[in-house]
């Protein structure tokens, strides 16, 4: 069991940002409306994620630390209609296997919370916790027992930057949730939870850039809806990571959709430059396979060519509408 968790950890937990991603996704799945992420030394020393979500009772808290004990899929058929961000039930046990983790949690019905202290995957302490309803997960000394992995970590500054990138993308996926990120006690990013994508964009890129974004909105059929914002061609960047793709509320890595966005700009961008863009696709779940990789960053799409063409067309339409 411990070995299996460490192997799974190798796939799910690559660096501090992957821990933050999994914990943040759990908070979102728990229905939280306010989440705070505090990170020290790029997350290598400590990561704390607090939420005001549904919390867990004692039994569920213990279960949460066991492999494949997800509460999110009840039957096999559910796999084709995944609406939660998590579903594999491997994140918490994987993270716990390679760190010192403290899980504090309380449901709204309970009059107090409980804490579980876990080291290298083993519960070494538990007791009552005075806290508001919700969950607080603290992960310390990541990779303390897997020195080979620890060696590959970049500087705290770089790791903290990657953490910030992930948080931004998840905040874009859920603009209605207030998300705060502090690194070494300095506030880096605050998404206000207004539900407005532009407010999230402004909190990351600044108000000036947010003002220069052009809305994208198109629905080629009732199976596909395209929404988002793209920057005027003058606001280009030097790497394509500034193109964020969301599919059904999930931040994904999709070079194909990114390329479709770039194609819409055609000759408007200088060589080697990329637009700032947020493209959010809502596709009927039957056409989306998110179960490609344990970290769930990649998706497989049916009717891919149609989708890519629709994205290009929608972005082009917006750029033309903004008279460029
Ligand atoms: P998954 O998200 O794939 O189900 P995880 O290992 O990430 O698996 O979490 C295991 C279980 O622990 C979840 O299914 C959920 O029931 C519970 N859980 C984890 N984090 C939270 C949280 N922040 N609030 C409430 N429940 C949580
Ligand atoms: Mg999860």
Notable features of this structure?
alpha+beta; Ribosomal Protein S5, domain 2; 2 domains; 8-stranded mixed beta sheet; 10 helices; elongated; binds adenosine-5'-diphosphate; binds magnesium ion; DNA damage
Summarize the structure in short.
This protein is an alpha+beta fold and 324 residues long. The chain has helices at residues 2-12, 16-29, 58-64, 91-97, 147-150, 156-173, 197-205, 207-211, 255-265, 304-321, and strands at residues 34-40, 46-51, 100-106, 113-119, 122-129, 134-140, 178-183, 186-191, 213-221, 224-231, 243-247, 250-252, 277-283, 288-289, 300-301. Adenosine-5'-diphosphate is lined by residues 22, 26-27, 29-30, 51, 53-56, 64, 70-72, 86-92, 135.
Verbal overview:
- This protein folds into two domains: 2-191, 2-Layer Sandwich (Heat Shock Protein 90), CATH 3.30.565.10; 212-321, Ribosomal Protein S5, domain 2 (2-Layer Sandwich), CATH 3.30.230.10.
- It contains ten helices and 15 strands.
- It has helices at 2-12, 16-29, 58-64, 91-97, 147-150, 156-173, 197-205, 207-211, 255-265, 304-321; strands at 34-40, 46-51, 100-106, 113-119, 122-129, 134-140, 178-183, 186-191, 213-221, 224-231, 243-247, 250-252, 277-283, 288-289, 300-301.
- It is elongated, with a radius of gyration of 20 Å.
- Adenosine-5'-diphosphate binds next to α2 and α4.
